[in-house]
């Protein structure tokens, strides 16, 4: 009887131990997830939204061995794991060691728990084709299926065009008018004078919007046209898939059958010699047949590292259209255009001015800030106000806010008007000196949080009433003197860039 009474107790003890182990594992997983959230946020700021979203965001913390200090990071495919390993492994390792000193080694692996996807099918119908390399499919079924699905998309000729990103919804200004006009020419009925078109812009300035707009407009004017939009990374995935499955002839014939090819983020094709060669041959074949090609990247062709000279010459042979950072006038126009979608929401002019002046890194953050502010106001029933904007957009505003000093303003104004910086504090009253000094006072009030007395002290100890007079005078001159308004706009662009 004693033996029987001990067995339930032993069983209960083992069960309790298992529960404790599971609780410890869950606790460790939560700690890893919290640390990863902080690390990921820091990497997003360092690498930019686009690179982070494409390569870093999919990472999932996995197993962690306390004895060896080894942490596994999982990615969904071998391609992405290899890419992250080559380019970001050192940065990830350093970030984890800072966050958790007990982490000594970081391994980047393919997620072990992937599920088998449907077998590859080419075209819109027909029987499934077994990959020529059976060992690849068995060892990495998810990667093969993912890549097969991607290649099937390409061979079917899907455009992947976002119908909301059109020329109508693209707001133009001095910083992007060349690129916008070139994009419209590329989509027009008549044959463009230049091809390929290469759009160069930093993250969030509208190059992807223009790619989709070209595809949308071209399809409207050429209903039977075959259009394909993809990223350079997607192009490489599909190229590798075709290579592995002995389908290069289908890949080439389908790819070169498109009337319009749109390739985004071409900078990510660097270092892949075989993919570069295939892209080179595709460009030559499409151009020889009068087809249209558009590429987009975050840097000029000459700044692409690891691109072979022949491909570099093809990318540069058409028109390279640069999209500069949106100036404040364009940022205002973009916000006002966006407001037409929210007719029922009242957004005061001072809020628009605040957002346009403060969120100046890229257009995507600007629009995102407005959307977040309006959504919060609608969900909470509050009115949109300057105070609400400052409270709810703290992260965006702090990331964009660059501290401009009065000394910096004085230097910039003196260089612009070609006078010595000592004139900012001198007692001279010659018009050639007084007007630049008044412009500098005006800019100091507009661009810094300094009070009138503080500004006056920076200008040779002048009285606050002198600063008030200067600010009001320049405001008035801007309304009736085009030259003065042009000078101030130019100075604002220099100081805010």
TrEMBL record:
Its main location: cytoplasm. Residues 1-135 are annotated as: Domain I, interacts with DnaA modulators. GO terms for molecular function: ATP binding; DNA replication origin binding; lipid binding. Residues 119-138 are annotated as: Disordered. Keywords: ATP-binding, Cytoplasm, DNA replication, DNA-binding, Lipid-binding, Nucleotide-binding. One of its GO terms (cellular component) is plasma membrane. PROSITE patterns: DNAA. SMART domains: AAA, Bac_DnaA_C. GO terms for biological process: DNA replication initiation; regulation of DNA replication. Residues 193-321 form the AAA+ ATPase domain. ATP binds at residues 204, 206-208. Plays an essential role in the initiation and regulation of chromosomal replication. ATP-DnaA binds to the origin of replication (oriC) to initiate formation of the DNA replication initiation complex once per cell cycle. Binds the DnaA box (a 9 base pair repeat at the origin) and separates the double-stranded (ds)DNA. Forms a right-handed helical filament on oriC DNA; dsDNA binds to the exterior of the filament while single-stranded (ss)DNA is stabiized in the filament's interior. Domain I is involved in oligomerization and binding regulators, domain II is flexibile and of varying length in different bacteria, domain III forms the AAA+ region, while domain IV binds dsDNA. Oligomerizes as a right-handed, spiral filament on DNA at oriC. Belongs to the DnaA family. NCBIfam families: DnaA (TIGR00362). This is Chromosomal replication initiator protein DnaA. The gene is dnaA.
